[in-house]
Amino acid sequence: MLTIATEIEVLARFGRALADPIRCRILVALREAPAHPAELADLLGISRTRLSNHLACLRDCGLVVAVPVGRRTRYELADPRLGHALDDLRTAVVAVATDADRTCAATTDEDCC
């Protein structure tokens, strides 16, 4: 069983992974279905080198795994529960953000979040 400190570190690592829009898009794409890097790069409209760097980050965070398939490698979420967590998080964040947009008094992005 993880300690509270370890759980907090895991959550922080998850947050760092989600801090980049491209990594978020990769996770959402893999939520739909496992994919090969070339497919992901085309889907996201980014170079394979850039995608590779983001996949390495997501692997290091323990969110995705590389699965050898013949001579190729397929990526998928490390655990199916991550897909459900992403769906729940996306729903909650969008709901909260919508409420915050109505009440936020910040004048610039630097004033908020």
Structure, explained:
The chain has a two-stranded antiparallel ribbon with strand order 1-2. Helix 2 crosses helix 5 and helix 3 (37-44) packs across helix 4. It has 5 helices and 2 strands. The chain has helices spanning 4-18, 21-32, 37-44, 48-60, 80-103; strands at residues 64-69, 72-77. The mean pLDDT is 88. Strand 1 and strand 2 form a beta hairpin. It has 113 residues and is mainly alpha-helical. The chain has one domain: Winged helix-like DNA-binding domain superfamily/Winged helix DNA-binding domain (Arc Repressor Mutant, subunit A, Orthogonal Bundle), CATH 1.10.10.10. 64% of the residues lie in helices and 11% in strands. This is HTH arsR-type domain-containing protein.
CATH-derived topology: Arc Repressor Mutant, subunit A
Contiguous helical run count? 5
Query: Which blocks of ≥5 consecutive residues have pLDDT under 50?
Result: none
Order of helices and strands: HHHHEEH
* Strand order across the largest sheet: 1-2
Estimate the strand proportion. 5-15%
Global outline: globular
What is the annotated CATH architecture?
Orthogonal Bundle
The number of domains is 1
Any descriptors?
mainly alpha, 2 strands, 113 residues, Arc Repressor Mutant, subunit A, 5 helices
Quick overview of this protein structure:
By secondary structure, the chain is mainly alpha-helical.
